[in-house]
Amino acid sequence: MLVNGELALVGASGEFFADHAIRLKARSRAKKTLFFGYCNGHHMYFPTIEAAAEGGYGADATVSWAALGAGEQMMDKALINIYTLMGKFKTPIPGL
């Protein structure tokens, strides 16, 4: 969601490792970008690729059933949606 062309609100279902939100905010061109996890009742972990490689709690397949890189894919889609709402693309993006 984009509020007043300046505030991007991104909600995702699950627990995303902090680096996902940090990277999304750094890549967004909205004046402010806020990321909300735990939306819509799904509570699976979404580790970063780096965290999955290092291991540790929430980063292995026993507690994170999502495909490796799923969090990055979701953040990329969120970024495309933000840019689309801001009118940054000259031609329509198929599937949006």
Task: Explain the layout of strands and helices.
Blueprint: E1 2-3, E2 7-11, E3 15-16, H1 18-27, E4 32-36, E5 45-46, H2 49-54, H3 70-85
Parallel strand pairs: 2-4, 3-5
Antiparallel strand pairs: 1-2
Helix pairs in contact: 1-3
Which keywords apply here?
single chain; 96 residues; alpha/beta; 3-stranded mixed β-sheet; two-stranded parallel sheet; 3 helices; 17% strand
In short:
By secondary structure, the chain is an alpha/beta fold.
End-to-end C-alpha gap: 13 Å
Structure class: alpha/beta
* Largest sheet entry: 3 strands, mixed
**Helical proportion, percent range:** 25-40%
- Using only C-alpha atoms, the radius of gyration works out to 14 Å
Can you give the mean pLDDT? 92
Order of helices and strands: EEEHEEHH
- Tell me, briefly, the overall form: elongated
* DSSP E strands, number: 5
Q: How many separate structural domains?
A: 1
Task: Give the percentage of residues in beta strands.
Answer: 15-25%
Strand order of the largest sheet: 1-2-4
Can you walk me through this structure?
The protein has 96 residues and is α/β, with parallel strands linked by helices. It has one domain (2-85). The protein is built from three helices and five strands; from the N terminus they run βββαββαα. The protein has helices at residues 18-27, 49-54, 70-85, and strands at 2-3, 7-11, 15-16, 32-36, 45-46. The chain has a three-stranded mixed beta sheet with strand order 1-2-4. The chain has a two-stranded parallel sheet with strand order 3-5. A hairpin with a 3-residue loop joins β1 and β2. α1 (18-27) packs parallel to α3 (70-85). The longest helix has 16 residues, at 70-85. The two termini are 13 Å apart.
